[in-house]
Specification:
Phage gp6-like head-tail connector protein; 180 residues; alpha+beta; three-stranded antiparallel beta sheet; four-stranded antiparallel beta sheet; 4 helices; 29% helix
Length: 180
């Protein structure tokens, strides 16, 4: 979950045309903003907040895709505990070893991002927060479980935890694509 939402409480109040909601409603709206920001992050498989972060992942590939992009600067990098030098490729969207060798093993990278949160992410967060704030606390038609022998299937069709179609459309170009 992001430390701060991708849109402000004031932006959401303006979006909803709520002039002066009471303290309880403001708390509900802020909680909806945090949940919406988390849903946006999960949908895109990316972190949009600027700042410094450290990622550890097992890698066996020529490039590594960080969770937050674009990478502004690389502070440190290790592979299986040994320091390595990295370079940014594709405008900071991917990282590669400077020596051209592929990653193999546990890679830990500390880096910074400085790009502001994109407008489409802010709008998708507002749309999702609006849907979450206006949704009933529990939608009995939102999910279901089916069992067949040893297997169990779960499905979620809408409800308070889903992104609205307009938010999905705004975020689709920003989704991280992982090639295997």
């Amino acid at each position: 979950m992001p430390l701060a939402p991708y849109a402000t409480l004031q932006q959401l109040q303006d979006f909803l045309s709520e002039v002066s909601p009471d303290a309880s409603r403001q708390a509900d709206l802020y909680a909806a903003l945090l949940r919406a920001s988390s849903a946006v992050e999960d949908f895109c498989c990316r972190d949009f907040a600027p700042g410094q972060r450290t990622e550890s992942k097992w890698a066996a590939a020529p490039i590594m895709t960080p969770r937050a992009t674009p990478v502004a600067s690389i502070i440190s990098a290790t592979q299986d505990g040994a320091p390595i030098e990295l370079v940014k490729r594709m405008g900071g969207s991917v990282l590669a070893r400077k020596d051209g060798l592929p990653f193999s093993g546990e890679v830990e990278v500390t880096y910074t991002t400085e790009a502001p949160v994109p407008n489409s992410v802010q709008m998708a967060t507002l749309l999702t927060a609006q849907a979450m704030a206006d949704a009933p606390a529990y939608d009995q038609n939102a999910g279901g479980t089916q069992s067949a022998g040893l297997y169990s299937f779960s499905a979620h069709a809408g409800g308070a935890g889903s992104l609205p179609p307009a938010a999905r459309a705004l975020l689709e170009p920003l989704r991280a694509v992982f090639l295997v």
